[in-house]
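Section 5.1 Outputs to date
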Amino acid sequence: MKFYLKLILLTVILLVLTAGYLYTFEPGEDMWFWASLSYYFVLGIVIGWKSQKAVLSKSNSRFFAGVMGSIGIRMLLCVVFLAIYLMISDLKSNEFVVYYLILYLFYTIFEIYQLVSKLRPEKETKVDNATP
């Protein structure tokens, strides 16, 4: 449950920063900025749920496949969104592409950090149990 609260917090922070950026610089096509932020939020929920499920699995191969699969799916779906933007948008703004890639970076780092922090306590308990 903490994962989802942290995801919401990250999204709210990015929402405030995005609103400030759009208000200050007025780059145009604001809809794409808001759509990409909400897209990453929904994608974060789905991918996070899938990754958390993989963390809870007892099999190492299932864990590895689940985590790598979720990262690969995120990358593929993000490229699809960007391709749709480039096909549909009239402006094809470089500002939006940079913003979109920064969002990708933030959400990917967040997901990896959450996975590592989830695994750290489990690994420590296993090591503690192994020592006499």
